[in-house]
């Protein structure tokens, strides 16, 4: 995308190590999303920054369950875009993805435009959601993978 070419490609020549480059790009991306979220009118209770509390991932007939202590993940949702960043419990990098988002009264669609899983780019994850107070519960997924996740609003 144009955003990637404008922001990320020029950065690739400026940093000495690959790991440092990725971390600086992630931090820049977080800053851009935080700015977009703080400047946006809150049109949906989904808009904001969320921390993962629990996750159940089912692929075909295999189910994995994760608690907050297993993963440290945040999801940033603006009226038009999303970003997810995660690390393992030992602090090592796990995943990052983002792209366009479509929010309706009861569904939320993520168009995965970039991330560290190349096979996910171009796919859409569709979720049903429910917000109660500062908790977000989403259920849905992409292809043969479903997610059942609980997030809490970061303040």
Overview of the molecule:
With 155 residues, the protein is of the alpha+beta class. Helix content is 21%, strand content 51%. The protein is built from 2 helices and 9 strands, in the order ααβββββββββ. The chain has helices spanning 2-12, 18-39, and strands at 48-59, 62-67, 71-77, 81-88, 93-103, 107-115, 124-132, 135-142, 145-153. The protein has an 8-stranded antiparallel barrel with strand order 1-3-4-5-6-7-8-9. β8 (135-142) and β9 (145-153) form a beta hairpin. The chain is globular. Mean pLDDT is 81; it is low at 1-16.
Shape, per Cα inertia axes? globular
What's the helical proportion of residues? 10-25%
- Whole-Å distance between the termini? 31 Å
Helix-strand category: alpha+beta
The largest sheet is: 8 strands, antiparallel, barrel
Mean pLDDT: 81
Summarize the structure.
Helices cover 21% and strands 51% of the residues. By secondary structure, it is of the alpha+beta class. Residues 1-16 have low confidence and may be disordered.
